[in-house]
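Review session, final week

We close the course with one last complete record, chosen because it touches almost every idea we covered. It is tRNA pseudouridine synthase B, a protein from Pseudalkalibacillus berkeleyi with 304 residues. Go through it on your own first, then we will talk.
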Amino acid sequence: MKEDGILPLHKPRGMTSHDCVAKLRKLLRTKRVGHTGTLDPAVTGVLPICVNRATKVAEYMSAYNKTYEATISIGTSTTTEDQTGEVVEQQNPGNIALADVQKVLESFVGEIEQTPPMFSAVKVKGKRLYEYAREGITIERPSRKVMIHSIELLSDPEYNSTNHVDFSIRVTCSKGTYIRTLAVDIGKSLGKPAHMSNLTRTKSGPFSLEDSFTFEEIEQHLNDEKPAEELFLPIEQALSIFPAVTVTSEVEQKILNGAVIEETKELSNPRSAVYNERGECLAIYVRHPNRPGWVKPEKVIKIH
């Protein structure tokens, strides 16, 4: 199979992102398959998968803003900050007023600081935090700034059958945001222990859950002997976050050869996606670090 593109996968609960890639390699019969940002096994939602030549753009896709729908459970905190961990603290949540929840959610919009959870893939001193956590070691980890673009309350706080007060939110945020940490911090602002009890990613950059395929749909499509590329979205869609610049056929040849070219007003962006007259993305260009007034290819996308 030589088809290229982005396959928006509806990741099921219980599989790691790596598991999804391994399964798709077998289904699509190609080794060049890669994901664009890890989702925990307990999390469902859109996971854009790069196939063949599209793997060249995976690094840009991991920087997308993401949108999630999450359920926050007030009354219990856990070791993992979600429903999979062991209970750390338990407290009767009492009555939580809707107005208080709305006020707290508003306080988290904008740039905030987060400390990554111990059960996470962040590296500290050359070792992933979850490796320390599995050994029962808690270490100091650096906080980092993330951007919460918006938080919308989807359901009013109400008691569930396990004596927690639950409410659901929709969050649009920057790369690197931990929604389970956000859930814990929201609980702290309400004066209660909390954890994230459910999470679905509904959007990753320009790719949404509505456009995504389940494994069952992919398998049925292939079993019906339909072309795999019908499942793919174009590489160009993945790069729509960058300013687009169209060049002539003469300049196209230079770009395909990896040439440094003169900077124009259109190419003066920190990063530009350069297209030919047929609408195919040729390369990603950036300002030249040593030659003012020139730009260089950061990555050539289209090959001869």
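Two points worth writing down before the exam:
DSSP finds eight helices and 19 strands in the chain.
The CA atoms of residues 42 and 84 lie 8 Å apart.
Good luck, everyone.
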